[in-house]
Amino acid sequence: KCKFILCQQVALFARNIAVSPITAVNKASLRSCSIMNVFQDAVCTLNTLQTNASALEQVKRERGHPQLQLQAMRGFLQRAGLKVDELDRLNIIHVTGTKGKGSTCAFTEQILRNYGFRTGFYSSPHLVQVRERIRINGQPIGKELFTKYFWQVYCRLEETKDAHGGSMPAYFRFLTILAFHIFLQEKVDLAVFEVGIGGAYDCTNIIRRPWVCGISSLGIDHTSILGDTIEKIAWQKGGIFKPGVPAFTVKQSDGPKMVLQERAEEIGCSLSVCPDLEEYQSEDSLRLGLAGHHQRSNASLALQLSHTWLQRHFLTGASPAFQPSPAMIKGLAETEWPGRNQTLKHGPVTYFLDGAHTTRSMQACVHWFNEIAPQHERNAGGPVVRVLLFNATGERDCGAMLKLLVPCLFDFAVFCPNITEAIATCNADQQNFNVSVENMLTRCLDNQQSWRVLNGQEEKPEAELLIGGGLPLVAERHRDTLVFPCILSALQWISQGRDSVLSDPNKCVIPVKPSINAKAALLREAVNIHVLITGSLHLVGGALKHLDPALNS
């Protein structure tokens, strides 16, 4: 099958060459076209590994047998031509947590890259393109390299599946194997690995000998898999500890702190609590490239992780108290991590994007928004309209998150599923086959109703569908709450043609009923429009696909 796919691409390339005379210009164009086609084939094939709902239920049932999970991962790794002991060569930093683990990894990778090391960084989820999950020297791996390594791993697994009951690794597990393979082939000096879910049962926990482990802030999330108390979740997170490997955690509440300490003693490793960022002795103030007060604990954890890694690399003695070096200070200041406390100003429309998806992370998001939005409003010179664009997925407590957002006093609350565009396009990177469109839209309508109740508005028994046939473009229950079928249609309505990026003639403009456009008079008359996009990293990623074209390149 894999050979057939590659032959198809060769034939396609040959046909393209036959169509027109070869010049220096169209040679480059044809090569780019061929790379794009093969890359899209790789992403579409990858999407066939997405776990459907019934398989997810099976995974949840099997979580009680962690050794079976890791044993299966070892089997897939071996079928892909890798050995577990080869992973030791990657000099890994392994990080888990509920909130801030991705930011911690980003800080850590940037610091060590500033020392001149060739870095690998594996994270999830991606915002726009799946290549973002696997980075070398801070940049997503190129399409050509992604495609090359994807087919190497996929074909090895495909060719051996009949001898293993037809089994293939699920989406995240495959990407983890792919990351291991790429980092080994590209000979990185170190690899920073962010845990997917939990720790003990996560497929990244096949790592045997990391150089250092870290745990960011803990909270309630993925309860059906990790447990329904923060202590149970802490036990799962502490599962990444390894004998003799130093571990660090940010300050936690007493319950999870005690569980983490017990896990460290049980496994046989040291566990240290990171100091506040203000406690580091530095001649220069520690400025962070990521906004939000909560990033300070992530930065402190990153300093400890990078410092410990450097100690081992240079074989120096342990010194928990240290003064951040110029490379560390520069690294913290230069760190970028899109979709987390990010601000984008497009003329009169300013977007505030944060992928908060738990109550604790939403508290931090609201705190950040309430600090930064008034600063922009003071400089507006006229009326400003506030708009909330929200969606949440999985088992998240949407009501609790929406309740935290009510005091922000939004003029409009807009809800949409994590579908980038209602009209089918070549957008394989952001396809999700785990949830039906009907379920996603139903969830949006439920969130709309929750918002109305939280704002003391009268309940209306049924939503009025504003167009006939197909997906409803907008479901109306109240003048200031709207549901759209996709992210692009929501953004276009919110911006009212005032964002030049969204006014790109290449973008399809989805028609909306005149009665709904009439509701947008406030948006058209305001000096500025401030839009908070939150509730899901997938929502933020879908928005960035339209708002930041550079992320698509």
From TrEMBL:
Known pathway: Cofactor biosynthesis; tetrahydrofolylpolyglutamate biosynthesis
Catalytic activity of the protein: (6S)-5,6,7,8-tetrahydrofolyl-(gamma-L-Glu)(n) + L-glutamate + ATP = (6S)-5,6,7,8-tetrahydrofolyl-(gamma-L-Glu)(n+1) + ADP + phosphate + H(+)
EC number, as in UniProt: 6.3.2.17
Predominant localisation class: cytoplasm
Cofactor(s) for this UniProt protein: a monovalent cation
Keywords: ATP-binding, Cytoplasm, Ligase, Magnesium, Membrane, Metal-binding, Mitochondrion, Mitochondrion inner membrane, Nucleotide-binding, One-carbon metabolism
GO BP: any one term: one-carbon metabolic process
Record-listed ATP binding positions: 340, 354
Entry-linked Gene3D superfamilies: Mur ligase, C-terminal domain, Mur-like, catalytic domain
Enzyme category, top tier: ligase
Function: Catalyzes conversion of folates to polyglutamate derivatives allowing concentration of folate compounds in the cell and the intracellular retention of these cofactors, which are important substrates for most of the folate-dependent enzymes that are involved in one-carbon transfer reactions involved in purine, pyrimidine and amino acid synthesis.
The family this protein is said to belong to: Belongs to the folylpolyglutamate synthase family.
Record's protein name: Folylpolyglutamate synthase
Cofactor info, note text: A monovalent cation.
Localization of this protein: Cytoplasm; Mitochondrion inner membrane; Mitochondrion matrix
KW Cytoplasm (keyword) present: yes
GO cellular component: cytosol; mitochondrial inner membrane; mitochondrial matrix
Residues at which Mg(2+) binds: 124, 194, 222
InterPro entries (alphabetical): Folylpolyglutamate_synth (IPR001645), Folylpolyglutamate_synth_CS (IPR018109), Folylpolyglutamate_synth_euk (IPR023600), Mur-like_cat_sf (IPR036565), Mur_ligase_C_dom_sf (IPR036615)
MF term (GO), any: metal ion binding
